Amino acid sequence: MSILVYIEQDQGKIKSSSLEAVSYASALSERSGGKVSVLGLGTIAEEDWAQLGQAGAEAIYHVADERLNSGVIQAHAHMIALVYQQVNASTLVLAKSALGDAVAARLAVKLNAGLVSNVVGLPELSDGFVVKRSIFTGKAFVDTAIPTENRILAIKKNTQPIKTDGTAVIVEKLTLELPESVFAAKITGKEKASGEILLPEADIVVSGGRGLNGPENWGMIEDLADSLHAARGCSKPVSDLGWRPHHEHVGQTGVKVAPSLYIAIAISGAIQHLAGVNASRHIVVINKDPEAPFFKAADYGIVGDAFEIVPKLTKAIKAL
Ligand code: FAD
């Protein structure tokens, strides 16, 4: 069984979720055999390729066509299907993301493959191919059997350790024909809802709650977020009250985030808010109430007044 991993990039940088996917594929190959090949599309920074070998890739293929930079879904699906067949793969591994979902759905049809999303664990191979996936925003897990010959596994972000002990691999440049039809629908321009980093993709999120008392106090949240190159989020009441735009609302009924670091400031930690943040790798909570439920989900907690702590924290970060 050969395994192909689809690599996502953002402005030329390989996403850490894709390194997780490669590490997952490498662990899968140790268990079941099969070479791990990876495919990167569009412009990718030279210095980033080494990480793929370290994460366990044994062959690296790159199609450097600039038209692939903007995540043209049909074109990506077309390329992946071609390379999948060329490397004689039976499993495709990719990161669960907006682009990953769109590409995976198309490939499931093209390759007649069983698709399982939100995968968190390596498959059980003694009884067929049975893989663990997360459901109900991470509250429960189910084992899903994939009886098809071809399989697509979309790996949930922040669930896999990234390997760094693999060996260097030479990148093989591919020149493959791209029919014009795969560019039938293309993105001609992108506009963010506001100037800041997008929440669902952010590596760090700084989020504020109702305890901040009003929109006039968001300057310190923005300062902290800017000092960390972080996206800004908020709790539901904050956006309901119109203190912050709705697209910043994090939680069960808002945006689900999966950053490396989530900083929650003056947010109580209601279950509906936690449902949107529990995929975060590390959670820091700042709250003046030591009994606030958020502390139970926190890796680090600071009990105190946000109006004192946040400016000091920002100053310390800027001084680094
Ligand atoms: P509060 O509960 O008012 O908490 C404010 C916190 O700030 C308190 O813990 C307080 O101790 C602290 N605080 C006050 N002053 C300071 C200070 N100076 N310094 C430090 N800490 C301070 N909520 C979401 O966020 N996202 C959702 O997606 C969502 N979906 C929902 C769906 C449903 C169906 C329902 C019923 C509710 C949903 N909610 C959601 C609302 C949720 O139940 C909570 O009401 C909400 O998350 C509370 O927001 P909060 O923590 O900002 O405010």
Helix and strand layout, with pairings?
Layout: E1 2-7, E2 9-10, E3 13-14, H1 16-32, E4 36-41, H2 49-54, E5 59-63, H3 73-86, E6 89-95, H4 98-110, E7 114-119, E8 130-135, E9 140-145, E10 151-155, E11 171-173, E12 204-208, H5 219-227, E13 231-234, H6 236-240, E14 261-265, H7 271-274, E15 282-287, H8 294-297, E16 300-303, H9 306-319
Parallel strand pairs: 1-4, 1-6, 4-5, 5-11, 6-10, 7-10, 12-13, 12-14, 14-15, 15-16
Antiparallel strand pairs: 2-3, 8-9
Bound molecules: flavin-adenine dinucleotide (FAD).
Flavin-adenine dinucleotide is lined by residues 209-211, 235-238, 251-254, 266-268, 270, 272-273, 276, 286-289, 292, 305-307.
Between the first and last Cα atoms, what is the distance in angstroms?
Answer: 48 Å
Determine the fraction of residues in helical runs and give it as a percent range.
25-40%
How many β-strands, per DSSP?
16
Query: What are the distinct ligands in this entry?
Result: flavin-adenine dinucleotide
Q: Can you characterise this structure?
A:
Belongs to the ETF alpha-subunit/FixB family. Pfam families: ETF, ETF_alpha. It is built from 9 helices and 16 strands. The protein has 320 residues and is α/β, with parallel strands linked by helices. A 7-stranded parallel beta sheet has the order 7-10-6-1-4-5-11, sandwiched between helices. Strands 13-12-14-15-16 form a 5-stranded parallel beta sheet. α3 crosses α4 (98-110) and α5 (219-227) runs parallel beside α9. The longest helix is centred in the first third of the chain and has 17 residues, at 16-32. The structure holds flavin-adenine dinucleotide. Residues 209-211, 235-238, 251-254, 266-268, 270, 272-273, 276, 286-289, 292, 305-307 line the site of flavin-adenine dinucleotide.
